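Running log. JK asked me to keep both predictions on one page so they can be read side by side. First protein, sequence followed by its tokens:
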Amino acid sequence: MRPRVLLVLALVVVAVGCSSSPPDPYAAYRQTSTEDVPGTLDWQIGPVPTDYRASIGPADAYDELFDAGDRKQAYAILGQVSNTSDHSVGPPAWVFVTPKTCYATAKGDLVSPGRTGNGCTKQNLYVQGVNATTGERLGGFTAFDTPTPWVPARAGTPDVVEAEVQAGTTLLH
């Protein structure tokens, strides 16, 4: 009887070991909870399904963005963006948040931050997404950071990755 028990236990260990999914190389980038994007009325970033694995990495996805390389740093988040106004949810995506977006400040500009003369502040954020499966650019929107800088609720602290594009190098963290 005892050899049968050992055989069954060995089969269970093998079955469990073979059925587990491979480790996620981007686990530290995963958004862990749904949270509002600061300075927006209706945009949120939430987690992707636990079994989802990105087909492309953050550096490759960053290359698809408008103004890629213009900023020296950007947050890279593996998550899903949703809009609470129209109840839409995007696909799993690499979401990049870059600080110090510059807005028009000259007289007669269509959009101007109160004509203060300083349209480039660290609190001006630009949020862009790239489909983490296909690499397709999804779009972007502006946001405004809080006085205490916003940090996304990610699963860990990812290693800094250098994204080298034609316009320059950006550190993704």
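And the second, directly underneath as requested:
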Amino acid sequence: MKQFIVACTATAMLFAVASCTGSASPASLASAARTAEGPATYLANNKSEVALIQWRITTGGDVRGTLTADNIGGAAPAASVAVNSVAFTGSVHGTSVKLTFVHGLFLHNRAYGKLSGSSLTLAVPHADGAIHATTFTRSSSSSYDRAVAALRRSAQHENLAAAQAGSHPSANSRAVQHNTQTDLTSLYQASSLAPQTKLTNDVARFARDAATARSRLATEKQAASGDNRYCTAASTAVGVAHGVNGAALSALGDSQALIAEITAIRVDIRTAGADQRRMSRAGVPAPTSAAALIATARSSMAHAVASANSYIDQINATNNQARVMANRMATGKCSSAGQVALTLPVAHIK
């Protein structure tokens, strides 16, 4: 398997492209992915990351399981092993695999892949929001435990090495090193796309707004198909259209909250860069993972903005469609139902 390309600076999945070989039939592959004793276990790991998939497949091809990701997060000498676990449902038909994450994973809800022999190759979300192919091999829980133990030893070794390298007699040097570590930790936490983090939750609000707008538009369409002889349908449509606009107003508030969060992350990135320059002037070696951590933060921020803007486009389109439909009905004898005013669309986040 090729070297994994993910830096060990954020809660991450293992993403590598590897070749799969095998001549097993689709039926035998699906059968091999089931065990009578317990869930099938697939593992991918390297020196800084471990990923585990465990699932059970029914005779109909439905699958339920859990994906667990362990990696060295943060910057030495305060690096630690971060763990993320997310449940999924899905299907396995022949060699094709489709997983749906119950609560989403790094801004994505699905992963697709294939079974080949004892390998499972999935296009899964990365901690910075990107998608990469990862190859897992059939394994066991005990192998996972050993891999995680090795990961913890690696983190301890990185911390020890960094602490020794940063042992300076100068109080100023020690202060610079401490401030840098504090700022990198703050950046790592603020830019994380792990489940239930602030940035992820901010984006999730846009998803809920878009779902609310779609649901209300469906209600409006149903009302529009009803009897409008007494303008009842028109009145209902206008009322629901105002409700769709309410979802857009909610998205506007969410946009302001996310902009504040993105601005704070950008400040953290600039601060971390300034810290590196101060360490250089003080003759203190910078944390080896600092550059990768900053790069991951930039990528996470960009993917969060792109995801939010995609939902904003959906919300604006739905809101406009609801307004046009309602106003088309509330004309002539039904003009008393009122018109839905044109509102400015929710602007993209920059």
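Observation for JK regarding the second prediction: Residues 1-32 have pLDDT under 50 and may be disordered.
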